[in-house]
Amino acid sequence: MTLLTLDAASYAVRGRKLVDAVELALDPGELLVVVGPNGAGKSTLVKLACGELAPTTGRVLWEGQELGRWPAWSLAAARAVLPQASGLAFPFTVGEVVRLGLDVVGRALPARRREEMVRDALARGDVSHLTGRSYQTLSGGERQRVHFARAVAQLAAGRLAAGAPRRQALFLDEPTASLDIHHQLLLMHEARRLAREGVAVLAVLHDLNLAAAVADRVVLLRGGQLIAAGRPEEALSAARIREVFAVEAEILRGAAGEAIYAFSMTDPSGDGRLKPGRKDPVG
Amino acid sequence: MTSADALRAGPDAGVRRPGAIPLLAALVMLCAAIAVVSMGAGAVSIPPGRVVSIIAGWLGLADAPASAREALILYDIRLPRTVLGLMVGATLAVSGALMQGLFRNPLADPSLVGVSAGAALAAATTIVVGDRLLAALGTGVPFALLPLAAFAGGLVTTLALYVIATREGRTSVTTMLLAGVALAALAGALTGLLVYISDDRQLRDLTFWSLGSLGGATWAKVVAVAPAVAAVLVLMPFLARGLNALLLGEAEAFHIGIAVERVKTAAILLTALGVGAAVASCGTIGFIGIVVPHLVRLVAGPDHRLLLPASALLGGALLLGADILARLLVAPSELPIGILTAAVGAPFFLWLLLRRGFGALS
Hints:
Helix content of chain A is 33%, strand content 26%.
């Protein structure tokens, strides 16, 4: 059964619709990737889906019940969120930040069990070696990995929390934005692993190649509206990429037959592809 | 190596924290030591050894005190002053820590952002206006009314700050500090107006409020302030987890499972209650709320489960220490304690600003 349903969900600020009547279902065990140009409403969609924002019209249902009716602590056992990079004005260590993820959800667990979860989560984010470091001294990418570890720890504790719904979801808002290529792949590998364990994963990505490589399903947003949803190659056809992102996409084939996109700028003068060596007309 | 050790001191451990129990025990001893000195210091000096033996006598642990006069001074003057100092210092420090957690910024402080000024204005209004109204009825202002008025003043100011500085769920600290300056100036102007229209007796009371003093401590004051202090100290542990999570951001705290609005509301109410009680009993005493939590964080880290109780203890000790200086520096007269805390606290604040850079404001 569907875990999360967006039923004609819209979110408007001062009359402007950031998310416009989106219909979407998220199933356990799938990795759903949301793509779209800047300002398409991707982050707002994540906020609606994780309960941070309530839809101005339409409904968001978690396990068939309106999301707003779940208390924060109960929701926290069922889903974790990796927001876009966040600052911290206080000198928490990396270990302490990750432990915050368990503070509510893992309250009833024995301390030893909690520490195991923290250690495992630190390893999953590849930040074990930073455990004792002050969060404030980390780079942007390292911070992102710490928060990923925090989310992983929260899910691990939530799985054992008594009385909580067992099916879980993970929301990742641009998780790879400031990561090097190694950690991009590592993080998405961990996300896939969680999906295979039955967690529903919704990730916002900008890299269409990464999206095509890891996603079970891709959702394409523009102007708050859902343009396409489906298997990566269906949703991300060359024609649709041109229409939504205003770039040319050439689809190459990898060794295993997977799609690899090569992008180039659409020439605004209309005579086709931008030639190599020519000055960028966009400036 | 246990897992806890591994987390605390891994191969790359850059940060070391002391254990909670040793730290709190050390602070309790510090409080006790300063309290004994405080009870001995003043026009009639009582050596620490005799202070301890007199108190032991009251508790039935030793023979009756040798000097009835010293026992009387201790019981009627020094003890209430010491107890009040500990309570107010603790409350101011905890209020500061709560406010810094609420605004997610280590530079927030009730005295800097106008909360103390708002509480003082309400108290001053009660003294001057209430005095005139009640004079018609032939009674004075009951002291118990002052903490209530100061609480209301602190609450209104804190709420105003929060509403002004928060847009769409994000609290801008720059806006908060600037709005605090404006609110403090407004409250100061209105307090000035009250000074202008007050008579001599009221003026003496008002001067006391603006500079702060533990001088008027009586058991009646202690009893009037105790419920508010007790509420702050008893309820603060319930906010610790929520405030920890709030440091990540309001959205993040919600993701973790915190009922964010409830934590924020409770923090605002407790801050206003604590500052109101402190201002009502001792006037405006600045900078305890910013210096103490900062010192604790330097040693013990930002975890509120330890930060709040440790701040309470260190705040009590620090204010009492300042009060001893206030009594001794110009003996037999007394300095207003607010002068001392500001003389130490303001440079400390500037140092904090310079060290952190302007990034601390955003």
